[in-house]
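Schema walk-through. Below, the input block comes first and the output block second. Nothing else is stored per chain. Lengths vary across the set, and this one has 294 residues.
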Amino acid sequence: MPAADHGAPSPTFVPDRVGVVGLGLMGGSFAKALAAAGREVYGWNRTRSVTEMAEIETIAGELTDETIPTCELVILAGYPQVSIDWLGEMAHLISPDAIVIDTVGVKRVICERCGKIAEGRPWTFVGCHPMAGTQYSGFAHARANMFRNAPMVVVPPQMDDFERAAILERLKRLLKPCGFGSFTLSDAENHDRMIAYTSQLAHVVSNAYVKSPTARRHRGFSAGSYKDLTRVARLNAPMWTELFLDNADNLSRELGTIIGSLQAYKDALDARDAEGLEALLAEGDRLKREAEAR
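--- output ---
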């Protein structure tokens, strides 16, 4: 964001007013958390009936050409391409000095595309990824406490240290009602590399795990382990397809690693190699303990 000068356009936003683009699980939860704290929230969703539902209990009204310029914070909470397209179409309406963030689970594509849209504009785009969610989707499953104590990963734009610090402090203030437990700064490359392991791989493994024919006969034989491993097998397939493909290189690498590890267990079992199997299990236990100790 360029430094303020006498020729810079004046802000048109109402302080603390928020616009949410996409009223699904993430966007709906932001809207509910902010509205519960008394913030004035305007929302837009591709499916009009969802916007109408949100107007009944949460948002003050629809995010339109007239209300976009009045928002101090705009949250892009749709699918990656929907978020990019919306920002490209509406960039000229966003108020000077406003902050635009996204909630998308990949950052390289979003930050590159949205960053280009923001170039030369008097407002700032900040890449964000709230590390929270459920296996369900849609506004009906959104809740005001979704982000309570959750980490927020932030990918700030290229700017000097003073400007960056000022933007981050404003962002923390604007998002305070959401109750995030921490804000972690990252670059887009590191974010996507880490998220391939901590989130995307878990969804793929869980989704593949339930494809065993045995899954249809598990009742009466399953408890915590099954529930833990299969929770995220339920997912929004179109959204996760887009996210996986936007991070295909990192996710494929993680899949290759786990396939190799699984093959080692299978080989030990097929060979009835008790010593080798015990060593594999002990190694996994040790690495888990080491990872948690950090």
